[in-house]
Structures are given as C-alpha cells and as structure tokens.
C-alpha cells in the first residue's frame, strides 16, 4: 500500500489554557495539571501545561490590552521588544520564543489551546488547515473516541477571516472550544468534556509515536464562510438580537427565509443567502466587540490520507 503520508514523531506537545483569562475550563485544567501531570503524561511524548495570559486570568478578563489570540502576526512577532508595547504583544513574543519560533523547525510539534464559548456549540475542535493530515487523523480519532457525544470540527482556513492564534506557533495547531459556558464560570460537564478530548488526543499521539499507522478516512468539517454582524442603527448601536429560533442552534442548517434576528420592537429579520449555511459561535459574548453575531460555515467531507511515522 502506498499513498500514506509520513509525519515526524510529535514529541513536544503543549496544552495552553488562559489564552483568554475568563474562559475557565482551560484555566482550571492547566492549574490541575501543573500541580500533578500524571494524567497527561505518556511514555513517548513530553506534554507541558502552560498558562498563556496570567494577568488576564488574574483579572478574569478576556485580555488586558488586546486579544492575545489575534496577536501572533509576523509584524508583532518581529517587533523590537519594549515596555511600551501592549501587554499581549509582549506576551506573544515570549510565547513565540518558548514554543516557536512560529514556522521554524524548532517550534513545538502540537499545541492544544483550550477555550470556552458562551455559544451552544458543544465540543468543537478548531483546525487552521485542510491539508494537515496529522491533525485530520487526530480529530478523526477523537471524534470516534468521544462518540456518542458529538465533537464537531471547525476549519478556519479562509483567505480573509483567518486570524493569528496563540497555538499557531506550533507545527500542528489544535483549538478546543467547548460550550455553552458563561465567561468566568466553571461548569463540570464542560470541564469533563474538555478533559476527555485532551486525554484522547494524547493517546492518539502516543500511538502514532509508537508506530501505529492510521488508514485513510473521511472526516466531516465545517469550513468558515462569513461573519455576520448584528443589525445596527445609524449610531452603530445594536438594533436587534439573535432570533429565538436561531439561538442555541449552532451547527443546524439555516435556510434562506429562516428567522435570524429579532428587532427590539419584535419584528423578524430573515436570512437571505442563496442556500443553506451552518451557523456557529451564535451569540458568543466575546464577539460583540468584534461585531460578529455568528459565523456561517459550509459542511464538507474531507478525504484524509493514511499517515505513519516518518523514518529519517
Ligand atoms: C470564544 C473564543 O475565544 N473563541 C476563539 C476561537 C479560536 O480559538 O479560534 C477566539 O475567538 O479566539
Ligand atoms: Zn477563547
């Protein structure tokens, strides 16, 4: 059999929590694993828990000066350092030094970045590339291991909408987004789902490093299509809310003519696209400042190559 892709062993892995200081599952898990790492230890992998934005965690805020999960741009990372830089830009440069440099052979193999959402997305894995077959095989493994609980895959690869994440310093970046959970709140069910995903992910890497070959497969993903803002008045203030028929319906098809927003005087604004889309991040609290009510996606099935450990 040919057609299988070789990937280097993934020996250096990091688990990031507190990239956003008010998303509590990742903050709590990193703190648990920093005190006792037996649960995340595997014989063929070195896994480091890491708190990304300790000042934001202390304030229980998303960020201090600017969103850390947008800060890993080439411009920021190559900027000469200095006290006058926004806190998160300084922090991005530090994280890039420890776990990167981004895009270099020295970068960590895999970074899991733990996030929570106020949206009803359930467990979601976020990938940034449709051609990283190592990551696609890993999410296929995790989805099977999590069943019957669902685990969706959001693909953020997009010419305009992709953003420069904290995890992007790794060769294989993986976002975990679990909700619904309010900001600043811990919910045990959300915490446990996140913990299970990390466990399965580390088991996959351990097996891969041990020489297990993973056969070709197919994986369902939701590819980011568009950001949709709230309707606004002439002063730029929000003039409508997510419609009750759309609220909490992440990953369900939104068809042309379906209700999308409800104005303060009770009228309905319908979706007017050409065909069905799959909205997600519906009414995410952190996205009001980003002028985003939800993101639309298209559902696709990706063909994933067989993978095996490359022998160099
Ligand atoms: C709610 C939230 O923070 N979501 C993350 C998604 C991601 O990590 O790609 C963000 O916007 O940075
Ligand atoms: Zn987040």
How would you characterize this protein structure?
The chain has 312 residues and is of the alpha/beta class. The protein is 23% helix and 26% strand. It has a 9-stranded mixed beta sheet. Strands 9-10-11 form a 3-stranded antiparallel beta sheet, with no helix packed on it. Helix 1 links the parallel strand 2 and strand 3. Helix 1 crosses helix 6. It is globular and about 65 Å long. Bound molecules: N-acetyl-L-aspartic acid and zinc ion (ZN). The site of N-acetyl-L-aspartic acid has 10 residues, from strand 7.
Largest sheet: 9 strands, mixed
Helical segment tally?
A: 6
Approximate shape: globular
Biggest sheet strand line-up: 3-2-4-7-5-6-8-13-12
Distinct compounds present: N-acetyl-L-aspartic acid, zinc ion
Mean pLDDT metric: 97
Distance from first to last alpha carbon: 20 Å
The percent range for strand residues is: 25-35%
Low-confidence runs (pLDDT<50, min 5 residues)? none
Which structural class best describes the helix and strand composition? alpha/beta
**Percent of residues in helical segments?**
10-25%
**From N to C, what is the helix and strand string?**
EEHEHHHEEHEEHEEEEEEE
Strand tally: 14
EC number: 3.5.1.15
Protein name: Aspartoacylase
Cofactor: Zn(2+)
Organism: Silurus meridionalis (Southern catfish)
